[in-house]
Specification:
Layout (H helix, E strand, L loop, with lengths): L5 H8 L7 E4 L6 H12 L2 E6 L15 H12 L8 E6 L5 H5 L1 H7 L5 E5 L2 H7 L10 E4 L5 H7 L3 H9 L8 H17 L3 H8 L4 H18 L9 H13 L16 H13 L3 E7 L10 E10 L2 H8 L15 H17 L12 E4 L7 E8 L2 E7 L8 H10 L3 E6 L4 E8 L5 E10 L6 H5 L2
Parallel strand pairs: 1-4, 1-5, 2-3, 3-4, 6-8, 10-11, 11-13
Antiparallel strand pairs: 6-7, 8-9, 9-10, 12-13
Helix pairs in contact: 8-9, 10-11, 11-14, 12-13
């Protein structure tokens, strides 16, 4: 399956200032597969070490001499390792913090050997490390679940991806392309972007089997709770994960997790799940200017899961010989899925060097209700994003927000074909407001940076 991040890995491999690369992301998001494919594409011999499967190999990396390390590895693994033609892959490195610290020696003394490390619980090692991190001598790349364009490519839908990717304000998207894109997006909404689950869908496995794979995925995540050793009771972690899914699209309240779970326990559990990248927090911001993170209110947050597959597994969304039609789902569930899918697609709009696009939202405190579903920093501006799970809905909060912040551009994501319009209305308070509204189908949110450059 083609992954968008492959081009970034290829660019890293041929960079003149190549540093050891650390891949971050949740378990089973495809990190190991990506490294193996990189070695195969580049014609390099892959030397793969898994510290979880064979922790005894950590002893080899106690030396500060990378050439000596390679000699020891060659003897232990019975392979020839030529720095000019090999690629060293250190998997599950979160269990070998001292090895992570030692990557600096490869950068400084053996730069001709490309080194990639990966770990699904890496943030725990980074948070608890007692070693000196090689700042400036290693690079990071975050790996997200597959996005909608990657899902289309996996299904051989290049002919559909081309016109929807090319849409820009002022142009038209054919009705046939829009309807086909909606059809595939609704299926993507049932499957998600975890590679093993997508592969099963591509192989035409029955929807009930796809759903079982999603449940297996969550079972693997729950099994990892035991590795949060000494940090939190696994029942509390599970309760918070369940609460995240149940509260999609709404403010997450620690006190509402479950009877018997104290607020400080829920808060700590949410922090741990965020570190494991099973969930992502969407922070409340006053949004009076850039950066959005400068006006965050720590007591307000929404939370989304790493992938919609987690949502289906925990909510037990039905699936038998076929997936349920989008319109057949309960309106509340459609709203939850829309919020989750939008967040996942928006996280793909970052520059590729961070931990995904930082997401924010705004909610009026006190008085009349008002909320903006998502706010992102894009192209040097604040971009408010209004979500609708169908084709229609009120935008009173957006009108008021645009008036208060004097912003020129907003985005609406729904199920309509893409369009552009000049909004000139009065707010509920009677104030005239004027701004440009770009309406995009929710399946195009991943391409916002390109769309907004027009």
């Amino acid at each position: 399956m083609k992954r968008t991040v492959e081009s970034r890995l290829d660019a890293w491999l041929v960079s003149s200032d190549r540093r050891p690369l650390v891949l971050r992301g949740p378990r089973q998001v495809g990190k190991t597969w990506l490294v193996r494919e990189l070695a195969a594409r580049s014609g390099r011999r892959l030397v793969e070490i898994n510290f979880e499967r064979d922790p005894s190999l950590k002893r080899i990396f106690t030396a500060n001499d990378p050439r000596k390390i390679l000699e020891e590895l060659s003897l232990t693994l019975s392979v020839d390792i030529n720095p000019e033609t090999s690629l060293l892959f250190l998997d599950e490195i979160q269990g070998a913090g001292e090895v992570l610290a030692g990557l600096r020696w490869f950068y400084e003394e053996l730069p001709q050997l490309p080194v990639v490390a990966a770990g699904s619980l890496l943030d725990f090692a980074l948070a608890d490390h007692t070693f000196s991190m090689p700042v400036g001598r290693i690079a990071f790349q975050h790996i997200e679940p597959m996005g909608f364009p990657e899902y289309l490519l996996a299904h051989g839908q290049e002919r559909l991806l081309a016109p929807i990717s090319a849409w820009r304000p002022g142009s038209e998207l054919s009705a046939a392309a829009h309807q086909q894109a909606l059809h595939w997006f609704y299926r993507f909404a049932m499957v998600g972007g975890m590679p093993a689950v997508v592969a099963a869908d591509v192989a035409d496995r029955e929807p009930r089997q796809v759903r079982e794979l999603q449940k297996d995925l969550v079972a693997a995540y729950r099994a990892d709770f035991a590795k949060y050793s000494g940090r939190m009771d696994r029942d509390i972690l599970d309760a918070v994960l369940q609460a995240v899914v149940a509260s999609l699209g709404r403010k997450f309240v620690h006190a509402h997790v479950r009877e018997g779970v104290k607020q400080h326990q829920a808060k700590r559990a949410l922090e741990l799940l965020s570190m494991a990248q099973l969930v992502h927090q969407v922070h409340h911001t006053a949004a009076n200017g850039l950066p959005l993170g400068a006006e965050v209110k720590s007591s307000f947050r929404k939370v989304v899961a790493a992938d919609v597959a987690v949502v289906h597994a925990l909510l037990s969304t039905p699936a038998a010989q076929s997936f349920p039609a989008w319109d057949a789902l309960a309106p509340a569930l459609r709203g939850q899925l829309t919020d989750q899918l939008a967040a996942a697609q928006l996280r793909l709009t970052d520059s590729g060097v961070g931990d995904g696009q930082e997401l924010y939202y705004w909610q009026r405190e006190g008085g009349r209700p008002g909320e903006i579903d998502y706010l992102v920093q894009m192209l040097g501006s604040i971009v408010p994003i209004e979500l609708k799970s169908g084709a229609s809905g009120s935008m009173k909060s957006l009108h008021q927000f645009m008036f208060d912040r004097r912003l020129p551009l907003a985005v609406r994501a729904d199920t309509n074909p893409p369009s552009v319009m000049k909004v000139e209305v009065k707010t509920t308070q009677g104030d005239p407001v004027s701004y440009r509204l770009i309406s995009v189908p929710i399946y195009l949110l991943w391409n916002l940076p390109e769309i907004l450059t027009k």
